[in-house]
Design a protein that fits this description.
The strands form three sheets. This protein has an eight-stranded antiparallel β-barrel with strand order 7-8-9-10-11-12-13-15. It has a four-stranded mixed sheet with strand order 1-5-3-4, sandwiched between helices. Strands 2-6 form a two-stranded parallel ribbon. The chain is α+β, with helices and mostly antiparallel strands. It contains eight helices and 15 strands.
């Protein structure tokens, strides 16, 4: 029995270092203080009032003050990892990640007296785990050997698997451009309105974003009823503001034959649609909900060359509909994205049926109608400025 207990104790002693290197334990032991700073898509300014950055700064300053002695003695290092994938290319992402990392480091240098030699910095053109595309991660921990990129690959522990590093040939600062000056955007004013940074040209994270879009479903001639008509050129302008709101105005037009039977479709439409973006992080992507209103006129002739009988098959008039919309926007790059959504609600048409006998048309009977249901399909492609 004693031998069995001794054997179990020996096994536990051997397994303790291994268990200590598990993901959860390694994170606590290797990283004495972990901090995440988030940036507005496409911007390099560190906004204090954006996504909890001010709270993270206070935590980081407190941690640096607590470990000032070990940091100055070289027993602890400040690891800074910038992640960015919202740029137009790998080079743009690296440069933006580098500038953002420098912004965070500059706060520690100018406000807490840290030195450049205290930092180990790596920048990545890949997402941070959890689809975070615009973040800077700061970790305080003891150095494990020489703080080079290759050594960091070997000694980062859980970081090596969670935060993919770039090849050693890729520099942290593209083109060896100088480190930018520190910029911290802090809201000022009695009502908490955001201020500006002197000489920085920094923009408010609540900035307005413009986008131009077109609905590919209209270009294909697809209707809400699932029929194929004439293609309808269209264009939409969307204004995004206040992190989670946008308003889209659109127009579409056709005046020619189309569809399988080459019927004449004359359609014009004008629409206004306010939207609420559910994520509310100022990047205006993923899911949205909206309300909309649309109005226009139409002229439908199933036999453009002329009706063979006097049954009033052709239709012309005005229409209007209003209701709710829902969809999703998926960014492809910093500027380009695709969108898919539907509209549904109330549709009213003030129409007249007529007999088409070119070059004349003869009124036949009223043909107005009202219905509820699906009123629009959106398969869009957009560009954001």
């Amino acid at each position: 029995m004693n031998r069995i207990l001794l054997l179990l104790g020996y096994i536990l002693l051997l397994s303790a270092p291994v268990c200590g290197r598990g993901v959860g334990t390694r994170a606590v032991s290797d990283c004495d203080s972990l901090h995440t700073f988030r940036f507005v898509q496409g911007r390099d300014v560190l906004y204090a009032d954006y996504q909890g950055n001010n709270h993270e700064l206070k935590r980081l300053f407190a941690a640096v003050s607590s470990f000032r002695g070990p940091i100055a003695d070289g027993k602890m290092r400040i690891y800074v990892d910038g992640h960015c994938t919202s740029g137009g290319s790998v080079h743009d992402n690296l440069w933006l990640a580098y500038v953002r990392s420098s912004r965070v480091k500059s706060e520690l240098i100018t406000r807490k007296g840290m030195k450049e030699e205290y930092f180990v910095t790596h920048n990545h053109a890949v997402c941070y785990p959890g689809e975070e595309r615009d973040v800077v991660i700061v970790c305080l921990r003891e150095p494990a050997g020489a703080d080079t990129l290759s050594a960091a690959r070997r000694n980062y522990g859980m970081y090596a698997s969670r935060y993919p590093l770039l090849p050693p040939a890729v520099p942290s600062a593209p083109d060896n451009r100088p480190c930018p000056p520190p910029i911290l955007f802090v809201p000022v004013g009695p009502a908490g309105h955001p201020g500006t940074v002197a000489g920085s040209g920094a923009e408010n994270p609540h900035r307005m974003v413009f986008s131009l879009k077109t609905n590919l479903a209209d270009w294909s001639g697809l209707t809400a009823e699932g029929r194929l008509g004439a293609f309808r050129p269209n264009l939409a302008l969307e204004l995004h503001f206040a992190r989670r709101w946008s308003v889209m105005a659109s127009a579409a037009y056709s005046d020619w034959k189309g569809g399988r039977d080459h019927r004449f479709w004359g359609v014009s439409g004008y629409s206004l649609e306010p939207r609420l973006w559910l994520k509310g992080d100022g990047r205006y992507r993923w899911f949205y909900l909206g309300v909309y209103g649309q109005s226009g006129d139409f002229d439908y002739r199933p036999s453009p060359a002329g009706d063979t009988d006097a049954t009033g098959r052709s239709r012309t008039g005005r229409y209007r509909h209003a209701g709710l919309s829902a969809g999703v926007y998926v960014p492809l790059s910093r500027h380009w994205g695709i969108e898919a959504g539907v509209r549904g609600g109330y549709l009213h048409s003030s129409a007249k049926a007529y007999d088409n006998e070119p070059p004349h048309a003869y009124y036949h009977h009223p043909a107005s109608f009202v219905r509820w249901g699906l009123t629009g399909i959106n398969l869009g492609l957009g560009y954001r400025f």
